[in-house]
């Protein structure tokens, strides 16, 4: 007697309220989700023009692309699997396609479902037209993605979200209307940085008043959400360990931002 193998599709644990800032991104996603909801009332032609069958969240690393994908799945009451693009493409020719077919089949069994392809560019970059093995494999993957893309329809509620730092190399065939809708998720601006700091101040239970949040937002210019999170994580860790200089306060948070910035500069210099 064999126990059923557990699915790689999970119930998403991120909500839109866990994400700080990015009102424009939320607006774009909500609008597309509302169109998805109306898709079946539309004539085929209009549906093709208006309703995306997936999203490409693109922008620099650590800006919450995966977070937005999980919150989107949550809003759809869907299960989710995050698949690493390079892991799929690093397989032998033929095997990659089989893997993708399997992922879609499993998504249908777990529907409503969202499949997230991290580093989507690795599986969906532009057809080069060259006749070497690599580009042929790439073409086959894009072609297969197009066949599998049914959209989030009542019969087949499977949505695909690709995340990438390189929208410029994504195959144009995937970017036509009614295929993937690109959504730009850039580095956070001042108000987004403040909102992100607020989220993580709550999450790590590191109290930060209005004035402190303002200062953190100013001090973290150029940083991504992941880096802002690490300021609060380190503050909390320091508190747990009783590290000097004692309880978390504005000064300590400021020092942590400074240390993070210094570490970033050191990295840049060594590159
Ligand atoms: P990559 O391109 O490197 O895969 P990504 O854009 O997908 O990165 P995420 O993995 O979604 O980034 O974000 C990493 C972490 O950074 C999140 O788990 C979260 O803790 C924090 N983070 C990033 N952006 C935000 C945000 N807007 N609000 C709250 N937390 C954020």
Can you describe this structure?
With 271 residues, the protein is an alpha/beta fold. Helix 5 packs parallel to helix 7, helix 8 (190-203) crosses helix 9 and helix 8 (190-203) packs parallel to helix 10 (225-241). The chain is built from 11 helices and 5 strands; from the N terminus they run ααβαβααβααββαααα. The longest helix is centred in the last third of the chain and has 21 residues, at 250-270. The protein is elongated. It has helices at 23-38, 44-50, 65-75, 85-89, 95-109, 121-124, 133-148, 190-203, 210-219, 225-241, 250-270, and strands spanning 54-58, 79-84, 113-118, 158-164, 180-184. The model has no long low-confidence stretch (mean pLDDT 85).
Q: Element order, helices and strands?
A: HHEHEHHEHHEEHHHH
**How many distinct helices?**
11
Helix content class = 40-55%
Biggest beta sheet summary: 5 strands, parallel
Quote the distance from N terminus to C terminus.
55 Å
Secondary structure class reads alpha/beta
Strand content: 5-15%
Order of strands in the sheet with most strands: 2-3-4-1-5
Number of strands: 5
Low-confidence stretches are none
Q: What is the CA-based Rg, rounded? A: 21 Å
Hetero groups: adenosine-5'-triphosphate
> What is the overall pLDDT average?
85
- Label the overall shape: elongated
Protein name: AAA+ ATPase domain-containing protein
Domain AAA+ ATPase: 51-189
Family: Belongs to the AAA ATPase family.
Organism: Dactylosporangium siamense
């Amino acid at each position: 007697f064999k126990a059923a193998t557990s699915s790689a599709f999970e119930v998403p644990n991120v909500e839109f309220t866990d994400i700080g800032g990015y009102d424009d991104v939320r607006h774009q996603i909500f609008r597309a989700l509302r169109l998805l909801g109306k898709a079946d009332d539309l004539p085929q032609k209009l549906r093709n023009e208006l309703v995306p069958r997936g999203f490409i969240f693109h922008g620099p690393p650590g800006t919450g692309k995966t977070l937005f994908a999980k919150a989107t799945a949550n809003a759809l009451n869907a299960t989710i699997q995050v698949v690493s693009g390079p892991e799929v493409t690093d397989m032998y020719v033929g095997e990659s396609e089989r893997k993708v077919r399997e992922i879609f089949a499993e998504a249908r069994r777990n529907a409503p479902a969202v499949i997230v392809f991290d580093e989507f560019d690795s599986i969906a970059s532009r057809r080069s037209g060259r006749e070497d093995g690599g580009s042929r494999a790439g073409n086959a993957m894009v072609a297969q993605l197009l066949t599998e893309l049914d959209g989030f329809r009542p019969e087949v509620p499977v949505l695909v979200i690709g995340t990438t730092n390189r929208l410029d190399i994504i195959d144009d065939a995937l970017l036509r209307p009614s295929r993937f809708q690109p959504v730009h998720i850039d580095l956070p601006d001042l108000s987004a940085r403040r909102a992100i700091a607020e989220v993580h101040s709550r999450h790590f239970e590191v109290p930060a008043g209005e004035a402190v949040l303002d200062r953190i937002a100013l001090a973290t210019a150029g940083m991504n959400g992941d880096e802002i999170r690490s300021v609060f994580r380190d503050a909390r860790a320091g508190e747990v360990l009783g590290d000097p200089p004692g309880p978390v306060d504005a000064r300590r948070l400021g020092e942590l931002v400074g240390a993070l910035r210094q570490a970033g500069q050191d990295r840049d210099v060594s590159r």
